[in-house]
């Protein structure tokens, strides 16, 4: 009895020792102190040790950027690599022996079990959502493969973290969305430009007869002050509207790339001086002290004088507008290395710092009151900037703040090697006076009877002999019977186009072809080319300015009149 109790104690001690051994082996395996796999199978625990030759594979799996896991048939984690441990927020030791599906989002467990089932016979893959220790979802792509390890069926899975890929996909989708929105905005912007161009064009047509009628009224002597007042008001307002519409049209032409520069070698000093003269009336109207400082040298630039004058005029006009009456405005031009620098300084309302670059954007007005107090659409500076940039120059504004005055600085590249035959003009021709007109015979062809009639009266009042025709065929008849010196020809006519009238007129009037001048609502480069091809000598955009027309008629005698 004593012996059997001794035996039992001995046996007990032996078993305890084995248990402690087993526990320490299992701990060592779990802690990766030895290289082995413990498989908890129905036949009891089985230990698989790694062979030395397997080390390279193991090193590979351990350092993979994908998660790797080996599962027993029952779905217990036998091995997990460090990457999977990081993905799940637990150590590999903690993961070993746990049920893998505990780490899968509950709603996806059955799908995973199906995948596992199919993975028994083939390599399968699918998408899964893991749940890490903190319960956060982690989308992964899983590739499952059946493994036979020492007769025991296991499953190996490689899990690729898709959160980055999904993030990238989301970013790509967002970028695509932004691209589409941009395309739509660009398209809308293009439509807006087209709409503005059409609107401006449509508004020009009724303006032509209004301006001509105002001119006619001016020519007629009247002693009635009320009539004079009303007439001047119509003239002023129509001129203002023409300017607004012209700006709109110009801007939409520029944004559509339809403005061509006719660049020559020009004297910048000459241009600035004539712009100053044009602006003088606006300065005087507000009793400003206007000082102009120009260098003695002409400062040659390769430029379209009319466009540069237009750009500078906008800046001067603003200085006059945004300075209280009696203010001081200084216009200067000087040379700085290879650049001409033109500055316009005023002591007017000034510009808040945050607005000093924005005012060059379309439709931006620095203070809400601008439009109400001064009219305008906020296009002037946008137009100036585009025109100056088209010449390779720049424009900027600086102001110490509201009430502190403003300085605009325009820089333009100077010609470094002036052409020997450089045509140095006195500028944009602003301020030019009209020579006393030579009477001409003028035929006005326009299907807009109001426009034709008012222009006809205007010309008659100026001493010319004028007639009208409302159709192309009538125009051709008048050309052969009335023998005009000049034909002002609308392009869109009800029967044949103005171009066709021009072609036929040149063909039918042997040696007595009148000077043909197109008068059209559209001032596009293509229209001018078409007009030129049809033998039209000049192309004017409606509403024609009375002064320009007088000049044109006066010059008409100097233009060659022989048929081709
Ligand atoms: N010299 C200046 N002093 C103060 N503010 C100015 C000056 N020049 C321009 N601004 C501000 O910049 C805005 C934009 O000027 P811009 O010439 O583009 O438009 P606008 O004068 O309002 O209208 P328009 O289209 O008739 O020129 C103006 O509304 C005004 O607020
Ligand atoms: Mg302006």
Short overview:
With 564 residues, the protein is α/β, with parallel strands linked by helices. 45% of the residues lie in helices and 21% in strands. It contains 16 helices and 19 strands.
Overview of this structure, please?
The protein is an alpha/beta fold and 564 residues long. The protein folds into 4 domains: 148 residues, Beta-Lactamase; 87 residues, Helix Hairpins, CATH 1.10.287; 150 residues, Histidine kinase-like ATPase, C-terminal domain (Heat Shock Protein 90, 2-Layer Sandwich), CATH 3.30.565; 118 residues, Rossmann fold. Helices cover 45% and strands 21% of the residues. The protein contains 16 helices and 19 strands. α14 links the parallel β17 and β18. α6 crosses α12, α9 packs antiparallel against α11 and α13 runs parallel beside α14. Adenosine-5'-triphosphate binds next to α9 and α11. Magnesium ion binds next to α9.
Name its key features.
564 residues, Beta-Lactamase, elongated, alpha/beta, five-stranded antiparallel β-sheet, disordered C terminus, 19 strands, Heat Shock Protein 90, binds adenosine-5'-triphosphate, 16 helices, Helix Hairpins, binds magnesium ion, 4 domains, single chain, five-stranded mixed β-sheet
């Amino acid at each position: 009895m004593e012996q059997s109790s001794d035996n039992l104690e001995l046996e007990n001690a032996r078993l305890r020792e084995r248990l402690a051994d087993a526990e320490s082996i299992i701990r060592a395996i779990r802690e990766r102190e030895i290289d082995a796999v413990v498989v908890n199978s129905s036949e009891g625990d089985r230990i698989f040790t790694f062979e030395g030759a397997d080390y390279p594979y193991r090193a590979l799996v351990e350092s993979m950027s994908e998660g790797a896991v080996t599962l027993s048939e029952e779905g217990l984690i036998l091995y997990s690599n460090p990457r999977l441990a990081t993905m799940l927020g637990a150590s590999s030791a903690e993961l070993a022996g746990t049920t893998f599906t505990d780490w899968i989002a509950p709603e996806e467990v059955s799908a995973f079990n199906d995948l596992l089932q199919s993975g028994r016979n083939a390599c399968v893959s699918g998408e899964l959502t893991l749940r890490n220790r903190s319960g956060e979802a982690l989308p992964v792509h899983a590739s499952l493969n059946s493994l036979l390890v020492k007769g025991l069926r296991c499953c190996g899975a490689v899990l690729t973290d898709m959160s980055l890929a999904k993030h990238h996909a989301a970013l790509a989708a967002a970028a695509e969305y932004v691209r589409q929105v941009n395309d739509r905005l660009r398209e809308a912007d293009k439509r807006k430009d087209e709409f503005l161009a059409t609107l401006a064009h449509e508004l020009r047509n009724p303006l032509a007869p209004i301006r001509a009628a105002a001119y006619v009224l001016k020519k007629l002597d009247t002693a009635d002050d009320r009539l004079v007042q009303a007439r001047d008001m119509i003239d002023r307002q129509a001129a203002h509207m023409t300017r607004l519409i012209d700006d709109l049209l110009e801007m939409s032409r520029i944004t559509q790339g339809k403005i061509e520069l006719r660049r020559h070698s020009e004297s910048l000093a000459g241009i600035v001086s004539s712009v100053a003269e044009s602006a003088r009336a606006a300065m005087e109207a507000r009793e400003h002290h206007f000082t102009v400082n120009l260098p003695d040298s002409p400062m040659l630039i390769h430029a379209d004088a009319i466009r540069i004058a237009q750009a500078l005029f906008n800046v001067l006009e603003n200085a006059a507008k945004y300075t209280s009456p009696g203010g001081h405005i200084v216009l200067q031009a000087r040379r700085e290395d290879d650049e001409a620098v033109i500055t316009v300084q005023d002591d007017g309302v000034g510009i808040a710092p945050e607005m000093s670059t924005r005012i060059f954007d379309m439709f931006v007005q620095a203070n809400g009151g601008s439009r109400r107090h001064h009219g305008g659409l906020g296009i002037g500076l946008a137009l100036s900037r585009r025109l100056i940039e088209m010449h390779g120059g720049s424009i900027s504004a600086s102001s110490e703040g509201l009430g502190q005055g403003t300085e605009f600085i325009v820089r333009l590249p100077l010609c470094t090697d002036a052409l020997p035959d450089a045509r140095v003009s006195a500028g944009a021709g602003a301020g030019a006076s009209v020579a006393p007109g030579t009477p001409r015979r003028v035929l006005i062809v326009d299907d807009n009877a109001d426009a034709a009639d008012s222009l006809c009266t205007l010309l008659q009042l100026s001493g010319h002999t004028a007639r009208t025709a409302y159709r192309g065929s009538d125009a051709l008849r008048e050309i052969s019977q009335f023998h005009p010196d000049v034909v002002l020809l609308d392009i869109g006519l009800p029967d044949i186009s103005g171009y066709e009238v021009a072609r036929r007129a040149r063909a039918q009037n042997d040696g007595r072809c009148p000077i043909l001048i197109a008068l059209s609502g559209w001032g596009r480069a293509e229209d001018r080319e078409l007009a030129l091809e049809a033998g039209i000598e000049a192309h004017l955009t409606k509403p024609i300015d009375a002064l320009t027309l007088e000049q044109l008629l006066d010059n008409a005698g100097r233009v060659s009149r022989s048929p081709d």
